[in-house]
Amino acid sequence: MEFVSGLPLTPTKKDSIWVIVDRLTKTAHFIPVRTDFFLQKDPRFTSRFWGKLHEALGSRIDFSTAFHPQTDSQSERVIQILDDMKDIEYSVRDKVFRRVSPWKKVLRFDRKGKLNPRFIGPYWILRRVGLVAYRLELPSELDCIHDVFHVLMLRHYRFDPTHVVPVEEIEIRPDLTFEEEPVQILDRNVNVLHRKSIPLVKVLWRNHSTEEATWEPEDSM
Question: What mean pLDDT comes out for the span 197-211?
Fold first, then answer.
């Protein structure tokens, strides 16, 4: 178990998260707590009480030190994600890109060839909505889309033409996806699965570079 502190105060006066990762299922559980509920260097955490408690539960407690702060890589990885989310914050009149997802009507075999996310924009932030959402100033072409978005769906305005899709060239659905179109077959191969052979083609997609070409079933193209 680990703790993440320094978060915005919730209506129930919670400003920290108690992270517990199940070693069997790898499921992460997040429990909101108050900072004064714990002290990371409190001797109570290293007392005989905690040792006896974990012994009764059939679990193990790992203590960290200043020279070796790592205790549980699974919990620490989850906490790193939470810390990254905590640091994402925008201000009114900031410019941001909005993430959209490429979508294809074909079965994927090569997961490593997954198309990278694309972004539309940039758009002005009008105001903050709650703790983790923002209202954007969208153009008339996106009237069918709700204008409040979670912070993880936004990106700071740092122009990179390889990841930006002109909204005029694609039809954005209400679920913020758009259909990709193949433009060229670059290569061919055969995927052998036991006694079955599946012809594949390497496809270059519109709005994507050659490095992002993916392998698709030939009969789906």
Answer: 83
Half-sphere CA count of 93, side-chain side, radius 13 A: 0
166's tokens: 């002109």
Predicted model pTM: 0.42
Phi then psi dihedrals of residue 136, to 5 deg:
-105, 155
Let me know whether 76 and 183 are in one domain: no
| Predicted local confidence at residue 211, as pLDDT | 79
Q: Looking at residue 125, what is its pLDDT? A: 92
Same domain, 209 and 106: yes
Q: Are residues 123 and 207 in the same domain?
A: yes
Location of structure tokens 């992460």: 28
Q: Tens of pLDDT along 70-118?
A: 455 555 666 565 555 555 567 776 777 667 665 544 333 333 445 555 6
